[in-house]
Amino acid sequence: MKITTNFIKQTKRHLSASGSILLPLALKWRLVGALVCALSGIAAQNVSAATITLSMPSALTVNVTPTADGTFAKSNPGSISVTSDAYAGYTLTVKGKTDNDALTSGGNSLPSITETAGIDENTFNSATYNNKWGYKPTKKDSADNTKFFPGPKLSGDTIDVTKSANPKVNTYSVELGVRVNNEQANGTYAGTFIFAVTANNVPYTINYHSNDATSGPGTPQTGSGAEGSTVNLDTATKRGYLFKGWCDNETNNTTCNGTTYQAGETYKLRNNANIVNLYALWQPMGFEDAFAFAGKQKEGQYYKMQDMTAEICDLVTVPSADSTATLIDIRDNNTYTVAKLLDGKCWMTQNLRIVDKILTAQYSDINNASFVLPESNLDNFWMSNENPTDKAAVYVANNTGYYSWFTATAGQGTAQKLSGETTESICAKAWKLPSYDDFDELVKSYTLASIQQAPSNFDLAGAVSNKIPSFFNECTFAWPSTASTNAKARYYLRICSNKHPGTVGFSIYTNANSEGFPVRCIVRE
Question: Residue 450 belongs to what H/E stretch?
């Protein structure tokens, strides 16, 4: 009777396996050697995955001559060597190729012993174990071993679990034991079994520092993984800011002096430093970012003025000097720069210049009724010493529209309105005429020099007075939505430079109900 055991090598990524074992006996036990390695941990860049090599001898042979009472025999030890640099060590296992741990020869079967606790050699060498076989590794469940165990099933047996890469090389041996009598048919008996080596997982803890996030990881991310495998990082949100990733060095919120990681990105786990502190990186949100965040679509290359909302304005957090954008008014395709100013509101930084349109609630700051905006006509303005009447007036010059208060308010600013706010205007939908209070907050937020240099860029566009354009390059004027108590005079904002002596600075006046002033729109809250 002859038993032979073979190890067949297999190789997987980052791993190598070599060698085979033959166990000639009066039976034949063939072991197939396979190598399986999983990788684990948080790995910094350029950290290589674990490498594990399993090597086995070329042959082991056991020959047994059956007797009436039974004969016990065992093979010479076959050496198995594991070389590993896996940081957390490895696990060596053996399992059957099927769940039947018997050795076979043609139609004959040689079952294994069944004692899961194992039996020593003296116990094995008794008639009770005639026609049974078992195997003996030098370690079993990481303990030194002198017993024979049942042939492994599909679930497998653990041979050894190491805790670190030291020592780097470990050597094991395996023996085959069998006791047969002459009731067992002669032949060469064989079975197939698989040795596997797997790198142990390493634990990790990721501590997130979200830097005042609106929402984000509230607790550390913990777990374990294979060395060199990947972990998906969490994300965070902060109102008015774009999340730009995680920095592995403490940061001032906007710049990283270390390595930046993106949320959801895959990263190799480090094999020796798995407690990681990550700090959120935030970029203040500009108009383009805010529109995109709100899911708005561009009209050509620009976002639409009609899509602007107080919510979008609120999201804009870039420094005031940089918080500008160009938007398109889809009523006439004019483009305007807009800015979020120091008063916290979003303003047009250029004067409105829409003319010759029938305005409706679909795209304009009016209700269901339409309002006819006439063509530009300087003669349509009346002289300020005339009795004011309610009529439209538009004049366009110097890239600025000049409107009577009646026109600017889409017909609500009449001589009879002596208090309160007009609720409609010729501004784009979602925008409005600034109120008296809006102007008051604005002028308190700036000095003359700063408002002329800020992105508000109040052009010194002048006004139309007595049917004559005047104060160009000296002053600018703008209508509010607030009605005054004087039927012949209305509030307006005046900003003048030192080119107009005696009126340097800016202020709010009541005068000139019939004159033509620019319109600067503000986002409706």
Answer: helix 448-453
Q: Structure tokens of 51?
A: 């490498």
The first and second tokens of residue 523, run together, are 């986002």
Span 313-348, pLDDT tens digits: 999 999 877 889 999 999 999 999 999 998 999 999
As a whole number of angstroms, the longest Cα–Cα distance in the chain is 138
Spatial neighbors of 196 by CB under 8 A, at least 6 apart, are 34, 35, 36, 92, 93, 94, 95, 156
**pLDDT over threshold 60, residue 402:** yes
Q: How far apart are CA 125 and CA 509, in angstroms?
A: 116
The DSSP line for 18-58 is EE----BSBSB-EEEE------BSB--TTPPPP-EEEEE-S
If you write DSSP's letter for every residue of 275-318 in order, what string do you get? EEEEEEEEEE--HHHHHHHTT--EETTEEEGGG--HHHHHH--S
Domains observed in the chain? 2-199 (no CATH), 202-284 (2.60.40.4270), 290-523 (no CATH)
Q: Which helix (H) or strand (E) holds 524?
A: none
Q: Which two tokens mark 94?
A: 């053996």
pTM score, whole prediction: 0.65
Which amino acid, 423? T
Q: Which two tokens stand for residue 334?
A: 């004019």
46: left (phi over 0), alpha (psi -120 to 50) or beta: left
> What CA–CA distance (Å, rounded) separates 22 from 511?
110
Q: Quick one: which of 195, 432, 194, 393 has its CA closest to 308?
A: 432
Residue type, 279: Y
